[in-house]
């Protein structure tokens, strides 16, 4: 059954309750490598329940996207990978604070033989005040679902990187078991743990969650700019990452005192996150 754009377009925005518990906040932080130095008090605040803080990219974990598993959508679930992610942090994620998650579909793009792209948006809203805490925009690349007959909406645009050498580069080792830890955040796709499943969909071995690469990059940026808070981060996801590699985060200081940076992420010469941007203040 091919992807059905009319069915997807007919879906109404969904809304459901959510809350962050301390255990999940600490698990997410550890799965990104925070707390690697247990004497680093700046990172301990994300991994220890005393005065616990939530790392801002945890916002990406919220959203049911139940339509992905609805057979009426025509989407081939086993062939979905993340294409891009953008997180805007407008408030503070707080353990135990009741939230509403509002989500909907912004666009459905036909890429022909390459597949299809579904653009989604989510907002995390403080249930008591109605204030928006975070906004998340994602592109999901449905590798087996192109040629459905036309596009609806448009893909988000990303700024090109500066045409000069990066101002600094940071290496981040990824343990071979990282995907096994990150999947405990809720994404139990066997693509990230089952070698036979990974081979069946075209990979030599299980791959790292792209949102793990995204979150690890956010941690690298936070470490590069100590004392500043992440307000926005976005990137296109160019290639899969295999656990056991070393990520190199190339950083350009793009906005002076405004805290704007551009970045890309490489494994050796291969770019895995491209046209990245972030705001820290």
Q: Which structural class best describes the helix and strand composition?
A: alpha+beta
Overall mean pLDDT stands at 92
Q: What best-fitting shape do the alpha-carbon axes yield? A: globular
Number of strands: 10
Look at the structure and give the CATH class of the largest domain. Alpha Beta
Low-confidence stretches: none
Could you explain how this protein is built, in words?
This protein has 281 residues and is α+β, with helices and mostly antiparallel strands. It folds into two domains: 1-156, Hotdog Thioesterase (Thiol Ester Dehydrase, Chain A, Roll); 157-281, Thiol Ester Dehydrase, Chain A (Roll). The chain is built from six helices and ten strands. It has helices at residues 5-10, 22-31, 41-47, 178-182, 195-200, 210-224; strands at 14-18, 80-89, 99-110, 116-126, 132-142, 168-173, 230-237, 246-253, 260-267, 270-280. Strands 1-3-4-5-2-7-10-9-8-6 form a ten-stranded antiparallel sheet. Strand 4 (116-126) and strand 5 (132-142) form a beta hairpin. The radius of gyration is 18 Å and the shape is globular. The mean pLDDT is 92.
